[in-house]
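Batch job 17 of 40 flagged for manual review because the log was empty.
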Amino acid sequence: MKKSLFALAALGAFASAAQAQSSVTLFGTIDSSVAYMTGVPLATSSTSTSTTVATTGSQTAFIDSGFATSNWGMRGSEDLGGGMKANFYLESDLLTNSGQTHSSGLFRRGANVSLAHQQYGELFLGRRGSAYILATGQMLPVSGNVAHQWRTVGNTSIGDQVSNSVTYASPEIMKTNIVGQIGLNNTTNAGDDGQIYAAHLINKSISGLQITGAYNRAVGVGDQLQLSAAEQVTYNGLTGAATRRNLEGYAAG
């Protein structure tokens, strides 16, 4: 059996954090609040005439992520010289009411390493935001989950992040940046079933104007996020049988 292995590794980042050429940053948002609410549904009761009566009451409640999603992460960079840097990025959800994280995994928001060069761009390996979703989110004057309804309504892509991904981001050329991405299916003799392809182009050559184009294609995936048993391991989808089909989306703005 022959194996070809191409890997990037960001090792010893913490051990070398104190060195002048290396840096590790801890970042995140913690959003917690306490709210007093009235008119909260309390219970339902049935009278002798079988009429259901809804009752309400007041509540003092702890609220997590009321305005922004609580999260935390680490990112690091080491200067390799000659304009080259090795980077890593980890981002996790944070539930401040319980101290737990998301059921889909500790670093479901991002877990990747990369090599970056000032002249040639940056190559990422690992779980990273979908190039399609990142671009379409910039086309709307809002942020967060509201922007991602673009995907939900059009049913054109799967998930905000792509697992098993290889992503290339070009340097700025004539005020233009291009990103290309593929999410591998990690299965034997399955062709390209279960793979995701995405790309976007952003041009800012005109002052005050951003021109954006994006493309996404998911091959042989389960309908409505109902992925096969093998695919759900890769994409954190739901269980159950589903019709396998292709999803494709285009966007410009």
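Reviewer: the log was empty due to a logging misconfiguration, but the result itself is present. The mean pLDDT is 79. Unflagging and moving on to job 18.
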